[in-house]
Design goal:
alpha/beta, D-Maltodextrin-Binding Protein, domain 2, 2 domains, 3-stranded antiparallel β-sheet, 14 helices, 13 strands, 42% helix
Length: 338
């Protein structure tokens, strides 16, 4: 994923956006036709099941029409797009969702869509002296932006190698593509990379560590909605969750075809898309898959909150129980896993 973990700019700005969004939501039409917002759709791996749902008409199978899947860079941008587009559903990073709640938005976490950070790999140039996490002492490590997930995960990676942030030099690059350029000109020694970029460049670089092998399950992306939406919109949101769940099942059972669909919707090479889908659909972190059904794993969510708090992406105490609403999930996955 590219950095999609920003914050809303101010309470004043948020208040205006909320007012606009609630007005739009109240003016809904008679049929279940809405846009949805998915952070980094068409770019990062988190949203790939929505490409499957769109291509295989799984939304229509649930009796709804998703008129458009709006992409965004994440954080406040995703939420502003959600409100401006009258979109009852969005997929976003937990830190951004919690930050919005703390600023007064009546947002609820209603599904856990990506349960691990398995799309992350840390790498260096081939032949580099930085071959494994324990070698990173003194390394210049690239990161996207302050308080981003990439920073939080670097902290966890170093901790697992009995190192700390004080043992490395953090170099802000602004994005994963920029990190590649920085690595090439030796501005940095190591950097995280996510799918599908890793599948595209894996033969060129040395993998220092793969997240699924060195980190525990960490809630990565969640589905959210406003607590104030009406009954028609609630039914639409429930249908979106069911369609996405069916898409994940399709990806498990038809991995090669799913890769072909992703290549089409993400405009990436076929072999890269197939590799990405194959890697992530088979990925297990302590038994937990990358793309979930929507069922909420409380431990993984709480673990990500603590990781984000460590880099000030989330500030203050968080009452997860008050933010989570499982009533949108199918009954068989409504129980929170603890």
């Amino acid at each position: 994923m590219r950095n999609h973990h920003g914050k809303l700019s101010s309470n004043k700005c948020l208040g205006a956006v909320v007012a606009l969004g609630l007005l739009a939501l109240s003016a809904s039409g008679a049929d279940a036709q809405y846009q949805i917002v998915v952070t980094n759709y068409g770019v990062s791996a988190n949203g790939m099941p929505f490409a499957i749902a769109k291509e295989k008409k799984l939304f229509e199978a649930e009796g709804i029409t998703v008129t458009d899947i709006i992409t965004s860079a994440g954080g406040g941008t995703t939420l502003r797009n959600m409100m401006a587009a009258n979109a009852p559903y969005a997929e976003i990073n937990p830190a951004a969702a919690i930050g919005a709640v703390q600023q007064g938005l009546d947002l609820k976490i209603i599904a856990e869509n990506v349960q691990t950070v398995s799309e992350f790999t840390w790498f260096s140039k081939k032949g580099s002296k930085f071959q494994k996490p324990a070698d990173l002492k003194g390394a210049r490590i690239g990161f996207n932006n302050p308080r981003s997930t990439s920073v939080a995960l670097i902290g966890l990676l170093l901790e697992g190698a009995n190192l700390s942030m004080n043992d490395v030099k953090m170099v802000r690059t602004g994005g994963f593509g920029e990190s590649l350029a920085a690595l090439e000109i030796d501005t940095i020694d190591a950097t995280p990379m996510t799918e599908p970029l890793w599948s595209q460049y894996k033969d060129k670089y040395h993998a220092i560590a793969v997240a699924s092998e060195v980190l525990p399950p960490l809630s990565n992306v969640v589905g959210v909605t406003l607590a104030s939406i009406d009954d028609k919109q609630k039914n639409f949101v429930r249908a979106v969750i069911r369609a996405r769940r069916a898409a994940v099942k399709f990806m498990e059972e038809n991995t090669a075809e799913a890769g072909d669909i992703v290549a089409k919707h993400y405009n990436i090479p076929l072999e890269v898309a197939r590799s990405t889908v194959n890697n992530l659909i088979k990925s297990r972190t302590q038994g937990i898959p990358y793309w979930g059904t929507g069922q909420i794993n409380y431990t993984g969510l709480d673990r990500m909150v603590k990781a984000q708090q460590s880099v000030a992406a989330i500030e203050g105490n968080v009452n997860l129980e008050a933010i989570i609403d499982t009533s949108y999930l199918p009954e068989d996955i409504r129980k929170i896993v603890r």
